[in-house]
Design brief:
Order of helices and strands: HHHHHH
Largest sheet: none
Strand content: under 5%
Helix content: over 70%
Distance between the termini: 51 Å
Radius of gyration: 17 Å
Oligomer: single chain
Length: 165
């Protein structure tokens, strides 16, 4: 049942560093545009979502580095971290109704929902399969973490550059 943690060690060490660095850059991006972000509640929610996605990736990658990653307690901790990230990100989607009318389009809603769910659901599903006794797939966990980082980069770009247009 051991998922070959030694094969994935370097990958997850890199992902811990990348997610922590991106979280720091997110703080820089939000501080540079703080008046604009605070002035629009949906941008505050986007910053919160992005930070939660990065925190989820950081926690999952850190837990994947535990020596006994196949133990039920580590598997349930992964599932709990993934569930918390997904839940907060999904709840923050409710702020999309606060978008100003020119931005409130089906395209914006769909892209925000797809992006947030792609960033959180793969890890959530893989972690829960592992937690209930299935095979914990490092491939699925890794894929989910990569999607989370890509989604976070996109959101950070919006918070740093796109809001200045």
């Amino acid at each position: 049942m051991l998922w070959g943690v030694e094969k994935w060690h370097d990958f997850f060490v890199s992902e811990v560093g990348a997610s922590a660095a991106l979280a720091g850059l997110l703080f820089v991006a939000t501080s540079m545009n703080l008046p604009r972000i605070v002035g629009a509640r949906y941008l505050v929610a986007l910053a919160g979502q992005t930070l939660m996605i990065l925190t989820g990736a950081l926690c999952i990658s850190s837990l994947a580095l535990f020596p006994d990653v196949d133990s039920p307690s580590v598997r349930w901790a992964m599932a709990a971290a993934a569930l918390l990230a997904w839940l907060i990100v999904t709840l923050l989607l409710g702020t999309l109704r606060l978008l100003p009318p020119p931005l409130r389009s089906l395209h914006r809603f769909a892209s925000a929902i797809i992006l947030s769910q792609c960033a959180t659901l793969p890890v959530l599903v893989a972690a829960f399969i592992g937690a209930v006794g299935g095979t914990l797939s490092p491939d699925a966990i890794a894929f989910g973490v990569i999607l989370a980082l890509v989604a976070s980069l996109y959101s950070a770009w919006v918070l740093l550059v796109e809001i200045l247009r």
